[in-house]
């Protein structure tokens, strides 16, 4: 493990759309092939050399804390708990305050992506003043919204109504508290709309890291069902 690699995982989701499949569990703890989905995400971090992770918890946080405790496969775990929902941005900012000030990997606790996280982190450090986002090419961007690149710079975020092949925000970021400074952000905010979109056209240019690895978002029942067979197979590759 590398002491330079640390991560935040957003693990406070309600999982409203999964209520027919998952009852009385936070979304990241939804069972996939007999294991909590969050274990697959943490495996990815451990295998990439991450030494410390902050789990940003909210809904039913005690379920997560009692399951994982203070470490997972030798990776230290700390918890950043929100008593009231802070939005994705507020949860990230609070968790970053609990970690040493450096560029940090940030992941969604309900998505899994086959990407070289150490390589992405090294790429982020090439231009540490710019936030980095992993982008995944998909056949149809309509569920997520397209991201437009000019070289490696993100120049636009599209509406979800648009369809067709393109890149989407894959929910993996390289961020630091310094990136968030200067925007007058409130305690509760969305990282996607209140920060990323406002970065367009400012000196804090967003950079996009294209990726074509396997990707799944368990936020809707059909994808959660697909994860039961696909995710264990992908992880073994």
Written description of the protein model:
There is one protein chain. The protein is of the alpha/beta class and 237 residues long. The protein is built from 7 helices and 14 strands. It has one domain (2-235): Spore Coat Polysaccharide Biosynthesis Protein SpsA, Chain A (Alpha-Beta Complex). The protein has an 8-stranded mixed sheet. Helix 3 (87-97) crosses helix 6. The mean pLDDT is 90.
Describe the global form.
Answer: globular
Q: Which range best describes the helical content: under 10%, 10-25%, 25-40%, 40-55%, 55-70% or over 70%? A: 25-40%
CATH architecture label name = Alpha-Beta Complex
Distance between the termini: 21 Å
Beta-strand residue fraction: 25-35%
Rg, Å, rounded: 17 Å
Mean pLDDT over the full residue set: 90
- Provide the succession of SSEs: EEEHEHEEHEEHEEEEHHEEH
Please state the structural category: alpha/beta
CATH top level assignment? Alpha Beta
CATH superfamily: Spore Coat Polysaccharide Biosynthesis Protein SpsA, Chain A
- Counting structural domains, the number is 1
